[in-house]
Specification:
- This is Apoptosis-inducing factor 3.
- There is one protein chain.
- By secondary structure, the protein is an alpha/beta fold.
- It has eleven helices and 38 strands.
- The protein has four domains: 111 residues, Rieske Iron-sulfur Protein, CATH 2.102.10; 203 residues, FAD/NAD(P)-binding domain (3-Layer(bba) Sandwich), CATH 3.50.50; 114 residues, FAD/NAD(P)-binding domain (3-Layer(bba) Sandwich), CATH 3.50.50; 84 residues, FAD/NAD-linked reductase, C-terminal dimerisation domain (Enolase-like, domain 1, 2-Layer Sandwich), CATH 3.30.390.
- Helix 2 packs parallel to helix 9.
- It is globular, with a radius of gyration of 25 Å.
- 47% of the residues are buried.
Amino acid sequence: VEVKIEVVIPEKERSKEEMSPNGKASPLIYKVNGTARHYHLEEHPIASNPYHNPKDVVEASVCHVKDLENGQMREVDLGCGKALLIKESGEFHAVGHKCPHYGAPLVKGVLSKGRVRCPWHGACFSIATGDIEDFPGLDSLPRFQVKIEKEKVYIRASKQALQTQRRTKMMAKCISLSNYNLSSTNVLIIGAGAAGLVCAETLRQEGFSDRIVMCTMDRHLPYDRPKLSKSMDSHPEQIALRPKEFFCTYDIEVLTEMQVAAVDVKSKIAVFKDGFKMEYNKLLIATGNMPKTLSCKGKEMENVFNIRTPEDANHVVKLATSKNVVIVGASFLGMEVAAYLAERAHSVSLVELEHVPFKKFFGERVGRAVMKMFENNRVKFYMQTEVSELREQEGKLKEVVLKSGKVLRADVCVVGVGAVPATGFLKQSGINIDSKGFIVVNKMMQTNIPGVFAAGDAVTFPLALRNNKKVNVPHWQMAHMHGRIAALNMLAHGTEISTVPYLWTAMFGKSIRYAGHGEGFDDVVIQGDLDELKFVAFYTKSDEVVAVASINYDPIVSKVAEVLAAGRTIRKRDVDTVVFLSFRTGDMSWLTGKGS
């Protein structure tokens, strides 16, 4: 029996010569109070389809049919690139072998019920189509046709597809942008983070060809915000989620440095801070969070930072090199910044109100293990205290005074004490906001106002995993899914959110992966060695596993995420079996039965 794999790449809808459908795609100009504003992006079309050239195709023999059992995956080399060959339920499939998000090897991921889940950050892809089904990341996998002939396995693939290992889904374009009133749009998206961008892309992928406008207070196009604290010297163009050409090609307008001051839901008008007004038909609010600031004396002085933009992160790295850094707050941001600066700064001190970092999220034992890792890398902790004063010399930060009486030398201070939802502009709108400022939405990301949706860090929504309890999950992956669900329901698909939360943090070359929602956990079952930072921790509540975290135990978190996504329940008594079967033997049978 012979297996052949042939690349199937959807044709791009634009040639080199073709520009935006509104003529030459000239910049849109809005006139507000007589001032001309150019809001459209530079017009350069995406390169033409590279897959028409027969010389670009490669064919190679890779294996025999009997080499793979059901439920197995294998990377196969074609000489100029690799593909992922999969056998499930007696059928062969082939897709790209790397996750388009950060390049994780999918052969080390989890195969279950027609999809493969990334071992690093939990993105999921259909093995039949290559389409992305859960996030993070924006692109899908290239899909390769499989043919069975005799006893040899051949792959016929485009060299370009093998090298890029990603595929952007087919998208519609705006039919006639030049005919629109520039002060009105069919869909207005407030916020240009992951939720806003995925919403816009999903609308185009689903064939929506009307006008889409995104607006953001930021000066940049949507970028990979988690890298602000994980890779602080990254420049905006290095972490952009999409290039400028992408937005032009698919007629997604982005208004940068534009702040919405109010929303009139009866008239369907958004009022901007500078007085400009825009009508909308459908609205997505995806404004995210705003970082909390210190309340002590000296908080406004120079060299005190919240990390909100690439410029903030870059500036901190520059100022901190060979200097004394004080970080206030052992949050994810605070800890990641401390880890990043530890080798660059002269000293790094971290001030935290709790006695162990991450105690509420990861539990005390895991928190202490992480704290020890930081101490071994020259980070000094000052726990169970707060900042009482920031002192200056010649207008610049010089010392941080703690309530304990300790005085710390400081050339730079980074504040990471949490965030609040950026929803203050909605207080008089009639949109339902809870006591903490979060926008309340249902499973379809709809607010109480027809036609108004909300997504991302600023919302509370029913989490299926926790019996539809209303929760706030400020994770990058979740923001992607919120945006997709909102877009589908703008188009009346009636799609409900059911994804499993998934997050990661990276510090000193170690990644902590986490899936589920462990809020209110009452016990932690740990397998492995905390001191060696090779372990998996199961968070339980009333004997049920509600979340899992790991270091150096891949792909256990992705495996548990698949169990939870399937609606299965893992009991505390099943933890030993889960670890043994999934990690030591690789047996995936428990996905469909064990622990349920």
